[in-house]
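Hello again, I could really use a second opinion on something today. I've been puzzling over a protein and I'd love to understand its fold better. I'm sending you its amino acid sequence along with the backbone structure tokens. It would help a lot if you went through both lines with me. I've dropped the whole record in just underneath, so have a look.
***
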Amino acid sequence: MINNFSHKLRLIIQDRGLLNRLLFVVFALMIFRLGAAVPIPGVNLQALQNFFSGNQFFGMLNIFSGGGLSNLSIFMLGVGPFITSSIIMQLLTMMFPSLKEMWHEEGEAGRRKFNQYSRLLTVPLAALQGLALLTLLGSQGVIIPLSVFDRVINVVTVVAGSILLMWIGELINQYGIGNGVSLIIFAGIVSRIPSSVGQIAANFSVAQVPLYLAFLAVAVVIIAGVVVVTESERPIPVTYAKQVRGNKVYGGASTYLPIRVNQAGVMPIIFALSILLFPQMIFNFLTKINNGIVQSVSSYGLALLNNAWFYAIVYFIFVFLFTYFYSAITFDPESVATNLQKSGAFIPGIRPGRPTAEYVAKVLYRLTFIGALFLGFVAMLPLLMKAVTGIAALAIGGTALLIVVSVALDFMKQVDAQLAMREY
């Protein structure tokens, strides 16, 4: 294993283009971490620490901001608005055929136009989310009383920070390696490890040793499970028809079509968290409105969402559904069947065309069922541990662990793909 790592490291150093891509990713993430340490004006640091201590909702939201929310930095919104706009645009493809055609059939130009619509939608979503968060934090005394002009400046600042972060993610996609948004979330989670370890060490007690050992064991099982499910795939045999041209025979080769068990990766977790955090943010905002009915409805909604068992069940359902949804929009059996037919390939025992598409879809949905169950169970398990132990950090740490492992695996696979392409 060590020899394999040293061999890959030597290949990366020798390949100037790949090394520049990796250095660009490091440079972009350094800019992100620098911006995450720059606070907006008017922050009461003591009130901020008291507000975030043991608050699971803002702990989850802090994951998407990459740690910027806990400092109330210019990047406090993180990539959350962009993720939300992407979810909305993907959902709209199911209602508007023109958007679906743009995404699936118009090629690279259509996808660029589709992504541009997602970026434009990010701006109003960031403004709404920034206004709601700053108003809520101001009512809690986290932000000192400011004039209307100063409040507008703060909203504009955090919206600009979110747009800048979205742009950094796009630059990583274009000039670096990996998914820029996922890497930003990954960097924010990893940057919190030293402070989390310090908090555990400060609050360490001998009585909690069995609890921490149990959580460590569960973490190892989660990592192993994510690796196994992410790497698992179902190969569908594919044969190319023989063609006679002159005195030569072409084709006849056999290969396979790999269908991954977890086709969606970590995106269902990110999507589900985004959807679950949105109503909590709205309810938190509405509780500050001076209206008895609105406050009672908001309090009831918050109490329901703060119920660990209700939250875990809804979380599981959302992860399960989003796994199917994301697999459906990223892997189109109709396109696969069409491409196979055009290239003169077929699945043994299956007729080309519509029967091939139905067979591939059947295999995909069966495998996605396994992947969706696993992702839903892994996402829900830390919340159940928090309900049993009463320690909110376990729920946040479990979700963060799942995201970190999945993003790291995807990044390593893309680096290996770049190395393999350059070797050939």
User: Anything to note?
Assistant: The chain has two domains: 1-204, 205-424. The chain has a mean pLDDT of 78. The chain is about 75% helix and 5% strand.
